[in-house]
Amino acid sequence: MDAHTVVQIGMGRIIDMARRGELTNRWTWAAVRGGWKYVVAMVTKRAVSDAVAAARCGWCVRCEALDAVDTSKAGLRAGYCGNGSTGKGGPTCGCLVTITVDGAAPQPAGKLWVRSESCPRGHWAEVTH
User: If you write DSSP's letter for every residue of 23-84 in order, what string do you get?
Assistant: First the structure.
């Protein structure tokens, strides 16, 4: 899946949540900035390695905060780190973290590829090397 498709999916969720009044202006802006970090990481080839992204994904798919939802594309589910609120188990960021295609195992997406990102619950950290 290319970066354009992933950004399109994430932006669709941001727009839908903002329209329903589920995101404040501050959270909407934070979500747009997060999507931009992903694009920059992919375009500048400064994303984490496949192994690091897969390890991060392993944490996310086991986390109770993972919110997996169907997208507008048939057979495609997007997984988000909650909705940006603090709930049972700690804070969430609402970022796109996994993509599942046609029922296959979830794959890393969005935030998981960005070196400077970390889990709001402390399960995985920024990659500095």
Answer: S-HHHHHHHHHHHHHHHHHHHTT-BPPHHHHHHHHHHHHH-TTEEEEE-SSTTEEEEEETTS
